């Protein structure tokens, strides 16, 4: 990794009350001495200085700013860091950034380079770095919640605990490779088998219990299906609280699947308005109906809506993920309302009657079928692939094989988990072996 000092604007470029510029690297104190009047011999870490930002060439004052110095290793990157809080005008930002670019051994940071340096300096592992990226990208409260957990190290601690158990097992096997004539003691033999069994079981459960991860990142797929003029588009607009799709009394108005991204009580959802399913000779509408059927097949939740005044519902849809919705109840008498099946939600999409109950039902299905009670989500496909690879190596492990081959299975399993966190260290095995020696040996 390059030792250049790097800088970057950490806030959005444009007009704002305050903007933040970060500088990290070995030349931070030199930068402070060049662009401020602060005495670097007496500067206090984590202390806010209100000072002039100066052009070192012309001595012109560029801005009056707050400056904070973070001394290595007690900083985000593990290096010396300078944080400049300037006024957020384009003129100020351009002038300060231009001055920084002109200083020797100081360059503009590459994308993600601050976090990369934090990783290399053991301030975070790869799961925490990716949790930080997820937090920055979070658009709903549930996405924020899981990103914070990952940034706080929940996945790191989980995967590291499994890896530590495997490293400890590997250290035992490595120790016996040099003494092939000696048998592994029975208690250690059982301990090794129990450890491998527990790790395999935990990984298997973790892989099985993670259908929610991609949905939480990309949105739960909800399809609104039903006959023409059932009120699908009206319901979409009511849920979106805006005119997201065209509403018309003309049958066949919606001829394609239209996706609307929404935040429903903290959960990201993608609600799809589909073409009304009916018999038609129109080739374009037919294609829209086929798309609707495909969307229904892959949906997490189906809202099967029907007009209670002139149509019936489709009983062929999968019950476990289908919400039956009787629409246009504002046009019914009390007696007619009582005839609607009790398990059907009664709403008026246009009048916004009963829609809150529908939203509650959607959240209940998400929580019952997809929510993860363990708080540990596999948030990246590479995590899943690495864990599946680890499990393969553990499944081939056996103490009935040559001990060198058994050790290789565990070594490869350790390496697979290490791919997730970014830590693949042979020194850990040596530390486990020699760490059990008595003092003086």
Explained architecture:
By secondary structure, the protein is α/β, with parallel strands linked by helices. Helices cover 44% and strands 17% of the residues. It has 15 helices and twelve strands. The chain has helices at residues 28-35, 90-102, 113-120, 126-137, 141-151, 154-177, 186-208, 213-218, 232-240, 283-298, 334-338, 355-369, 381-396, 403-421, 427-435; strands at 5-9, 16-24, 48-54, 61-70, 81-88, 106-108, 220-225, 258-264, 267-273, 301-307, 322-327, 345-346. A hairpin with a 2-residue loop joins strand 8 and strand 9. Helix 6 packs antiparallel against helix 14, helix 6 (154-177) crosses helix 15 and helix 7 runs antiparallel to helix 13. The radius of gyration is 30 Å and the shape is flat. Mean pLDDT is 83; it is low at 245-256 and 436-441.
Task: List the keywords.
alpha/beta; Rossmann fold; 12 strands; 3 domains; disordered C terminus; six-stranded mixed sheet; flat; Gyrase A, domain 2; single chain; Four Helix Bundle (Hemerythrin (Met), subunit A); 441 residues
Could you write a compact summary of the structure shown?
By secondary structure, this protein is an alpha/beta fold. The protein contains 15 helices and twelve strands.
